[in-house]
């Protein structure tokens, strides 16, 4: 009788879980231990799979770093950033993110170093950048939006699926007349700039030296995370 009751409880729990609406973002690192950050906040310890449940619909910045499993009391190692995307979550499903992990990564044994003989996947950092014609169409749409909130929504939509060059960002910020407006756009787009080494041109479009310093501080802080 006890076995029957236990079996019934297990079955009831399983059915209850199945009946609940589960939604969230699942990040899979394959065989590579990973650390997951959501909106700049660390949300996991070293793991190979992380599920963030019951999120509201909206945009989320997901960052994934290579790591290694630690012993109790050992400091968590934060290695190479493997994934950095601003994604849109619908709020009523499970979004799957598969991270291109690096097997057997260690702090002193990163792929791509000449002395270790590994290699990184070959890719073109400009693959996700809008071509000239598409960017012009996008820019025209931004300029034609009469309300600022709609312009921001349009830029956010583009950031969800495209990267930008420093020159494209410069064209966008020059549409705005005041430093505070330009800085807002810079901070939105900077994480998706493919040629960050050229971003100084965008910062130099600001009028006041104090604001230029603020942006350089923002870039420095971003690069340190």
UniProtKB/TrEMBL annotation:
InterPro entries: DUF4476 (IPR028011). The keyword Signal applies. Coiled coil: none annotated. Residues 103-122 are annotated as: Disordered. Residues 1-19 form the signal peptide. Residues 130-218 form the DUF4476 domain. Keywords: Signal. This is DUF4476 domain-containing protein. It comes from the Bacteria. The keyword Glycosyltransferase does not apply. It comes from Bacteroides acidifaciens. Pfam families: DUF4476.
